[in-house]
Known about the structure:
Shape of chain B: globular
Radius of gyration of chain A: 18 Å
Structural class of chain B: alpha+beta
Number of domains of chain A: 2
Number of strands of chain A: 0
Order of helices and strands of chain A: HHHHHHHHH
Strand content of chain B: 15-25%
Strand content of chain A: under 5%
CATH topology of the largest domain in chain A: Rna Polymerase Sigma Factor, Chain: A
Distance between the termini of chain A: 54 Å
Structural class of chain A: mainly alpha
Largest sheet of chain A: none
CATH architecture of the largest domain in chain A: Orthogonal Bundle
Largest sheet of chain B: 6 strands, mixed
Number of helices of chain A: 9
Oligomer: heterodimer
CATH class of the largest domain in chain A: Mainly Alpha
Number of helices of chain B: 18
CATH superfamily of the largest domain in chain A: RNA polymerase sigma factor, region 2, helix turn helix motif
Shape of chain A: globular
Number of strands of chain B: 16
Strand order of the largest sheet of chain B: 7-6-5-8-9-10
Helix content of chain B: 25-40%
Amino acid sequence: MQTDDNTLALAAAGGDAGAFATLIERQYDRLFRLCFRLTGSQAEAEDLCQDICAALPAKLGGFRAEASFTTWVYRICVNAAHDRRRRAATHARAAEGWGDWELNRRAADEQSEEALDWLTTAMRHLPADLRDTLALVLDDMTHAQTAEILGVSEGTISWRISQAKKNLASLHKEDTV
Amino acid sequence: MTDDLDDLKSLMNRATPRPDAARKRENIALAQKNFADLQGSRDGMRPTSDRPKTGFISGVRTMLNALTSRAGLTASTAIVAVGFIALLPQTQDLMPRSPSAPPPSVVLKQQPPTTSPAPALAQGAAPAPQMELQAQDYAVTAPAAATRMRVQGDAASGMVMPEPPILLPEANTESFANAEANPVKITAEDPVSTFSIDVDTASYAVIRNALTSGQMPPADAVRIEEMINYFPYDYAAPADGAAFRPTVTLNQTPWNPDTQLLQIGIEGAALEVENRPPLNLVFLIDTSGSMQNADKLPLLKQSFRLMLGQLRPEDQIAIVTYAGSAGQVLAPTPASDRSTILNALENLEAGGSTAGQAGLQQAYATAAKMAKDGEVSRVILATDGDFNVGLSNPEALKDYIADQRDTGTYLSVLGFGRGNLDDATMQALAQNGNGTAAYIDTLSEAQKVLVDQLSGALFPIADDVKIQVEFNPATVAEYRLIGYETRALRREDFNNDAVDAGDIGAGHQVTALYEVTPVGSPAILNDDLRYATEPARTESDELAFLRLRYKAPGASDSTLIETPIVQTNATDPTFAAAIAGFGQLLRDGSYTGDWSYADAIALATRTKGDDPFGYRTEAIQLMRLAQSLSVQ
């Protein structure tokens, strides 16, 4: 008795709490997976999921089923990740020279970063646009869908993928030399 | 996509961790809370915390957060007072329906089959597995709290963003105790089913509250056995001297023509009202700030006033409150001194945080002082479930309650209000304290629990009641216990008197339903194994064998009742089946096939019977609400 996501999302947009509960329950793991690939850290991904969960109800009002729900919600993910990065950057600037507590906290962050395996670390070193593109394509999105989510042309996606591959390859070389 | 991308993809798949279950639950709860908050007022929002739209509500919250002075207190009190006046008429509408009534209701306790309690440890061993369950519950909330603090910390460090982040309207902190639905078992492989009884009804009231406020209840809030046990059924009363007696019937399954429902009903002996022992009641009342709402403290006062009318002059009442610090509001007073008790009740006011542990300790100490031989002592804890101060060590609290249980003081938990109802903690407290948990959402529910079923709620007639059913593989191919997920016992624990189980009160009824698939039925879900040896077939054509164990109150050795269940022709479905089906639809409906709310309504209407108190009519209303809500 699986109702498809678009129907559920439309019902939820109309105020059906049950539909919303089912939808979020069903989508959460996928969203988390994408969030992890966008951020490269479990803790960051959980926090990003929290942002998305908090804002999704309000966003849903704008869902018109023009695109598939997955495409639509992935776009929200990517935008939320952008906002989060921007905020982190501002925060990092503001926090510079902020006393031992902050320094220690960031040192701890860096340590856990080191513990991440090569791939996720490498992903994090990619420029943001390449990383977003790669994350989506690795998540079984076609180039066309990825283009739709990111709001760029399909050609751009193909170009970015090849760039990302080049970058990863050179990172890999550095690492293994 | 190219080949090396595929490599990358599989690498990535391996590197991607599973989402943290606790965070997941927390985040989903947050989403649902925001969803609920949003109904009625929608405007676009970016999924970020840096540009809040300052609406009226968050403006007020910001103001209240900023004000800590006397002015703030005055303002908040004034706002609460306004809310109060606005809400009160609603409470009046919820008023009663009819006085004095019969039974089904409250009691509980069980343990998930985790550790193996050594039989030699006797009483000390029993609560151990429950403790673990609770430890998990708290583990779930702890990181969530940490996250909230971290978000707040970011905001506070904030030259960068002076506004409070929007994504943390107080997260809905409700938590519910539940487990995966019981699976279908193959009789040949696993013929024995063991569980503890549960006369609790809190789940039904929570479901009613959700549905009447226009929302489908969370699936975890649905405990089917508590829904079934909410209703009185027409079971044979036990013979003189017996504590209770099982009634077993076999009915047609409404949602599957090829299976049958085995209904096991137990009715506890009713207590002769004139002969009941005197009661010592300690009301332990949560007066923390969260109890302000009209459906909390005010409803609680009304409820206890109703109950007072049922007590007799020799009964004694004391009131202990807890909020910030615990205190005795009313020293033990005979129930005949109504005006003193009512005054004390009336003067209760909500404010402060919740020091649950200190409150419980004081309540038990008071109960110990009141106790005399031949009297029944009970602590009645009324709370919205918030135990946020003094719970530095939840396990110590459970240990404490379990210790007190051994002194013979019972504990009942009454839940009020929604929003931060901690159903899981309530269940655990009542289970550890040999008590009952009920959820009071309306005055008519208070009437049912505290007036109509008072004797059942307050006078235990059997402790640690366990049921074990052994199915006969020659007649039953598969079976499935409907509900009782949180009450499962291990097979060997049935005979272990050290293992705690549910208690049954005077006049209580307990109903358990098994969906059984007869041998040769087309509804059998599991195919025969090709390589397994043929299971030993008995000649017996009995359906199953029912074993029941219970202890007389206070006794440490259990009594065994055994009855074979013989095959009979399946009769028409009962009202209990309609409720069981309804509960399954609310949970997930994986076994109910095409059976729908409409079928549940039709069946319930047909089998409603007498329904002198209107409980069943109300259930049909709820089914209709669920039907409408589910197709929205």
